[in-house]
Amino acid sequence: MPIDVVGLFRRRLGENYELYAQYVNPTWARVTRLIGYDKIYARAEGCHLYDADGRRYLDCVSGFCVSGIGHNHPAVRQALRRLLEEALPNLVQLDCPLFAGLLAEALVKRVPWLDMVFFANSGSEAIEAALKFARAATGRPRILYAEGAYHGVTYGALSVTGHRMWREGFGPLLTEMDAVPFNDADALGQELERGRVAGVLLEPIQVGAGIVMPADGYLARVQELCRKHGALLMFDEIHTGVGRTGSFLAAERYGVEPDVVCLSKGLSGALVPVSAVITRRDVIRGVYSRLDRSVVHATTFGGNNLAMVAGLATLQALDDEDLLKRCREMGDYLIRSLRPLLEKHELVKDVRGAGLLVGVEFGEPKSLFLRNAWSMMHRINPGLFAQAFTIPLLEKHAVLTQVAGHNEDVLKVAPAFVVAREDIDYFVRALDDVLLVAHSFPGPFWEVGTRLAKNALI
Ligand SMILES: Cc1ncc(COP(=O)(O)O)c(C=O)c1O
Fold first, then answer.
1. How far is CA 359 from the centre of its chain?
2. 150 catalytic, yes or no?
3. What distances in angstroms separate CA 293 from CA 152, 288, 290, one per listed residue?
4. For this structure, is 396 an active site residue?
5. How far apart are the C-alpha atoms of 258 and 276, rounded to whole Å?
6. DSSP label of 206
7. From 57, 150, 218, 254, active-site residue
8. Crossing angle between the packed helical segments 421-438 and 323-338, to the nearest 10 degrees
9. Is 265 a catalytic residue?
10. Which residues line ligand 1 (CB under 6 A)?
């Protein structure tokens, strides 16, 4: 008897948080309860989630930007179903799998200045590969990365993740990894002058640091400096890639052509883990440099049929539905619709982003009562304020959002590209309402903050 997975899901639905607390991660289960995120989601479609009672939620998190084309895209599901109907060879290992070649071909078509692709299973693994490739291809040890960057939590990736919180308790990390300030090309130039730099790794837009946009001309200047010093320019487009900013890569927006591009999240329609490192032929040759080094960097499941087919179907869905254009249009509409909140609410400091990767930054208010409340909350924990916004957005308005990163006053808004104007209108009205409530102190908004603070949550 095959396992009845759907029956199992329906029968045990509701036990999610107890099971997770008991067997997976009790601290996370506790956090979800404290902030009221312990919903029992029963269905996901497009940019919406549905709980067990049928309540619909607007998903502005998109699983940390995995579901760019929307949850459960019918074309990707159909492709995966069709694949599984046949007994095709998969993970033979001692062959060259066809679907991996086909997805590599399709990716290189979209990134025409690069030639070849290495496949893995997660963003962190893609970063590990990029770091190793840079050292192997150049014969140099140093990697430069940006302060505030997030590149993942495996040891290599963690060694180039520029936020203390992620590192605490895990040292020592890799050596010869040096941080430079983001948006400061001169500082980068000075580090490059010191020599022995294999590569410079950057997120073109720093997502976890609070949707920090690159300054005009910064990335082009970084490219110039990398070329001058013979260092590889490596872009972590794990968050920004596959259309999230309205072009296939964010690099295109800024007119730069990095030597290495890491992709993951949005590449497989939120259905199968996958990641890819797209790079130049000479970099790949530098790694797999002799017959006895032909698999010197590898991963067992990289290039598996499910991931490759999900990737191919996702790329086709982007084209068939003109989703990059839609992402640009909806992103512009979202930013246009949010801008009036800047005038209306003193707590809103900035609205910024690209495509459907948008940040709403809160700032210290001018009026005395609010300013005192703001300071108090920030003294307890700098990340508390934005977190307090996400709670009524979910509870009262059924909108799922997240804070952009740790200790940031930035709310991240990143729905799937299939989001409709009505969804955006709804979101903006919801945020406007929460902002109105937040502007009266004392009031329910600040009570949420106090509750979070009491639980020393963040
Ligand atoms: C920019 C960036 N790089 C790397 C990663 C790590 O990816 P993963 O969690 O799949 O290892 C993430 C994940 O959030 C990311 O946003």
1. 13
2. yes
3. 27, 5, 5
4. no
5. 14
6. B
7. 150
8. 30
9. yes
10. 64, 122-124, 127, 150-152, 203, 207, 236, 238-239, 264
Separation of CA 21 and ligand 1 centre (Å): 24
**What is this structure's pTM?**
0.97
- Give CA separation, 121 vs 197, 270, 306, 450, in Å: 27, 13, 11, 40
Residue 117 CB coordination number (10 Å): 22
Q: What share of the chain is helix, strand, coil (3-state, %, to 5)?
A: 45, 15, 40
User: Which atom of ligand 1 approaches the CA of 264 most closely?
Assistant: 10
Nearest to 427 by CA among 331, 307, 293: 331
CB neighbourhood size of 366 (10 A)? 9
Assess contact for 416 and 70: CB atoms under 8 A: yes
Integer Rg of the chain from CA = 23
- Cα 373 from Cα 362, distance rounded (Å): 14
For the chain, 458 residues long, give each residue's pLDDT as a single digit of tens. Answer: 899 999 999 999 999 999 999 999 999 999 999 999 999 999 999 999 999 999 999 999 999 999 999 999 999 999 999 999 999 999 999 999 999 999 999 999 999 999 999 999 999 999 999 999 999 999 999 999 999 999 999 999 999 999 888 999 999 999 999 999 999 999 999 999 999 999 999 999 999 999 999 999 999 999 999 999 999 999 999 999 999 999 999 999 999 999 999 999 999 999 999 999 999 999 999 999 999 999 999 999 999 999 999 999 999 999 999 999 999 999 999 999 999 999 999 999 999 999 999 999 999 999 888 898 899 888 888 888 899 999 999 999 999 999 998 778 999 999 999 999 999 999 999 999 999 999 888 888 888 877 787 775 54
